[in-house]
Design brief:
Blueprint lengths: L2 H16 L6 E4 L8 E4 L4 E4 L1 H7 L1 H19 L9 H10 L18 E5 L5 E4 L17 E3 L1
Parallel strand pairs: 1-3
Antiparallel strand pairs: 2-3, 4-5, 4-6
Helix pairs in contact: 1-3, 2-3, 3-4
Length: about 150
């Protein structure tokens, strides 16, 4: 999707849900990591994360665009456009925009569980972090631990 198509898409969403035209800048920013998009009030510009379009599809991206348009239109009208403002929350509900975007599947880390067993009593310990078996002992019988 190029800049013209993106601007047309954002303009269509703005007209459909907000009944106001969108006349400012919108662009993809691949450097965004933890968010689907952002609105920069000083530049009146919306930046969107292209990874959300590629990984989660157009429906998720449309929700992100609606969320950023809530910021944009409230800022233009001089109302509270930040997440904590009641006008912003009310407009989110009215337009069916998500408050938060779902995490990207590519950023989800699979959590590994490290399992240790006592050599004497057989007690099993499951831990998220690795432990030094030379330094730590069993909490029940003080026996040596081994990695399973």
């Amino acid at each position: 999707m190029d800049q013209d198509q993106l601007h047309r898409w954002v303009s269509e969403i703005s007209a459909k849900y907000f009944h106001i035209s969108f006349n400012d800048k919108v662009s993809f920013n691949s450097r965004l990591r933890t968010t689907g998009g952002r609105y920069i009030p000083s530049q009146r510009k919306i930046e969107l994360n292209p990874k959300y379009l590629h990984e989660l599809g157009e429906e998720a991206m449309e929700g992100i665009i609606k969320h950023e348009l809530c910021h944009y239109h409230l800022h233009i009208q001089g109302k509270g456009y930040q997440h904590r403002d009641p006008e912003f929350r009310e407009l989110l509900k009215k337009t069916g925009s998500p408050r938060f975007c779902s995490p990207l599947p590519s950023n989800q880390k699979k959590q590994t569980i490290h399992s240790y067993r006592c050599k004497q009593c057989g007690q099993v310990y499951n831990r998220k972090r690795k432990i030094d078996v030379k330094r730590y002992r069993c909490g029940h019988c003080r026996g040596k631990l081994e990695k399973q």
